[in-house]
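Narrative of activities, Objective 1.

The group set out to show that a structural description can be obtained from nothing but a protein's sequence at a throughput compatible with the screening campaign. Below is one input-output pair from the validation batch, recorded exactly as produced.
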Amino acid sequence: QVQLVESGGGLVQAGGSLRLSCAASGSIFSINTMGWYRQAAGKQRELVATITNIGTTNYADSVKGRFTISRDNAKNTVYLQMNCLKPEDTAVYYCNLDYRRGMWSTYLEVWGQGTLVTVSS
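Output recorded for this entry:
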């Protein structure tokens, strides 16, 4: 089975930086998309950034210019570099993986356990 392990969350002051990591393990034939989502207290989960295995990226308008998503295919790991953090970035951040187990299989989806990012003013 495929699992995602997240790390890198913590408490920082506004204007600071954090780097989140998400490592995938298990039987993975190919990855379509890896991404980051976040859920603030009392709000629905929202997309932060995604990246495909050919390098196409997509960002939420609220993080463009501040966050950068990247990947290390050899390690099956995706990163989220977060700069110029704002209090409104405070949320639990979840890693998401869209993958397939075989050449002809359909794509499956798995979520990480979440890592808390708290930005103080």
